[in-house]
Amino acid sequence: MNNQVTCLILLSLTLFSCGKKEGVTYGKPVTLKKTISIDRLYTRPAPDDFAIEGKIVQIDTARGSWFILEDDDDKIEISLTEFVIPQDAKGKRALVQGTKLVKAYRRSASGQDYETFVVYASGMEIY
Questions:
Q1: What pTM was computed for the model?
Q2: Residue 83 burial (CB < 10 Å; 0-12/13-18/19+)?
Q3: 3-state secondary structure of 3
Q4: Which residues are paired to 95 by β-bridges?
Q5: How far apart are CA 85 and CA 60, in angstroms?
Q6: Are 94 and 126 in contact (CB under 8 A)?
Q7: 4-62 residue pLDDT tens
Q8: What is the CA radius of gyration of the chain?
Q9: pLDDT for 61-112, tens place per residue?
Q10: Cα four-point dihedral sign 19, 25, 31, 36
Q11: CATH number for the segment(s) 23-126
């Protein structure tokens, strides 16, 4: 009887832990778990602190001090001032806590100037 109870407890703990996202934290711990979409950042004023989630699709190859995050509909540049991320994070999912959303001007590879928004991340989890 004790073996059956022990097995049941172990099975329950195993199943419970399967649903939890575990990742590596960079910068400050992410304290906001409710996310907003990237589209929402583009269309409405951003709150003081916000969290966004998506896939890392491009990383700064020189230092890892910025990357492009993509959710279901949009992409946005994430700037990292207090930490960097490894190159092997490309293709992984990330939860990013941002503190600022600023307008920036960039030049494309073809030489065209364009306006975009940049999120300054205070911390993130990669999983």
A1: 0.78
A2: middle
A3: helix
A4: 53, 125
A5: 9
A6: yes
A7: 655 555 555 555 555 555 789 999 999 998 999 999 988 888 888 999 999 999 999 99
A8: 18
A9: 999 999 999 999 899 999 999 999 999 999 999 999 998 888 888 888 899 9
A10: negative
A11: 2.40.50.140
